[in-house]
């Protein structure tokens, strides 16, 4: 239950991404700076956290061993995740981006066969290729039906261009984020904690963000003070707090694909938090009855997903990993 609660809490802080990115776009800011500034601002926060825990040296040694692997999966997990998310904010409202982002629930489940689960047998722990959790996938579909209901009446007023550029980049991000996260969990094993892994992936993805910043200076100029401050808030609330909470939750269940899918499904609550945030901060129109019904389905789907995950884990012994 603790990983689920941590996942929901991370979803609350992740929701600030969609709200503030949309706010920056409405005020004339470029998606380029919305994306790159977040990760540039994350570095000092994460450095302080890891240094206070006296874990910086071990992280740097780990990164030195396999720099190419760190760069590749950090670029996929962070670069191909957040740049498309920020780009989509230029073409669609926050609720559309947040709703489409829930594709990560399905994406994470579909990626299971590309990874190995550790199971306890009579001969000791063995690694077996993961299987798509069909029952969990059905619970995820309940959540996605709820998300779709929340957006049907609003999507009718959007142009084809907005739908295309507001949805396709987010679908790419929905596969990139769990893929990069899971691959780095495999690379790090139990040698690094969640704080070290987030800092390592941030440092490894810096070349991409610096190149994007140079491109931004050449094409749109420097960001405004307002956009810089809002990007700072995104870096703190979503980039540091939410990411560390989510990575900690996934670390606690990384040996069980069913539980991992359940933790990733908690990100569906971002839609609820994004709707309330836009109502309070951006004076967005109040959702319709259909949308509120969809929100209830999201919550019901999450409860069912959590129940199925717990029931499944009781049937299949899994090698336990030490939590942080």
TrEMBL record:
Q: Name one Pfam family in it.
A: EmrE
Does this entry carry the keyword Transmembrane helix? yes
Give the matching InterPro entries: EmrE
Keyword set includes Oxidoreductase: no
Ranges in a coiled coil = none
Keywords assigned: Membrane, Transmembrane, Transmembrane helix
Q: Which residues cross the membrane?
A: 31-50, 70-89, 95-116, 132-152, 158-177, 198-217, 229-249, 261-283, 289-308
Name of this chain's protein: Multidrug resistance efflux transporter family protein
**Source species:** Cytobacillus mangrovibacter
């Amino acid at each position: 239950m603790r990983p689920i609660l941590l996942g929901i809490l991370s979803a609350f802080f992740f929701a600030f991404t969609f709200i503030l990115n949309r706010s920056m776009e409405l005020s004339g800011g470029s998606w380029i700076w919305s994306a790159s500034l977040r990760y540039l601002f994350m570095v000092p926060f994460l450095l302080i956290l890891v240094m206070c825990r006296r874990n910086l040296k071990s992280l740097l040694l780990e990164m030195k061993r396999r720099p190419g692997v760190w760069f590749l999966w950090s670029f996929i997990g962070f670069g191909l995740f957040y740049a498309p998310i920020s780009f989509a904010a230029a073409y669609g409202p926050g609720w559309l981006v947040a709703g489409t982002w829930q594709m990560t629930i399905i994406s994470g489940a579909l990626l299971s066969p590309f990874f190995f689960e550790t199971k306890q047998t009579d001969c000791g722990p063995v690694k077996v290729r993961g299987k798509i959790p069909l029952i969990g996938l059905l619970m995820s579909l309940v959540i996605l039906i709820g998300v779709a209901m929340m957006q049907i009446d609003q999507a009718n007023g959007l142009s084809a261009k907005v739908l295309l550029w507001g949805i396709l980049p987010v679908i790419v991000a929905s596969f990139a984020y769990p893929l990069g996260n899971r691959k780095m969990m495999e690379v790090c094993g139990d040698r690094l904690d969640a704080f070290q892994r987030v800092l390592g992936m941030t440092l490894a993805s810096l070349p991409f963000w610096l190149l994007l910043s140079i491109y931004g200076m050449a094409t749109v100029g420097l960001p405004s003070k307002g956009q810089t401050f809002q990007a700072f808030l995104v870096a703190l609330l979503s980039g540091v707090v939410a990411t560390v909470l989510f990575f900690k939750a996934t670390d606690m269940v990384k040996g069980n694909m069913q539980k991992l899918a359940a933790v990733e499904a908690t990100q569906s609550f971002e839609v609820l938090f994004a709707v309330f945030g836009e109502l309070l901060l951006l004076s967005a129109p109040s959702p319709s009855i259909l949308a509120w019904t969809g929100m209830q389905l999201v919550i019901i789907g999450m409860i069912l997903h959590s129940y199925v995950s717990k029931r499944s884990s009781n049937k299949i012994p899994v090698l336990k990993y030490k939590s942080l």
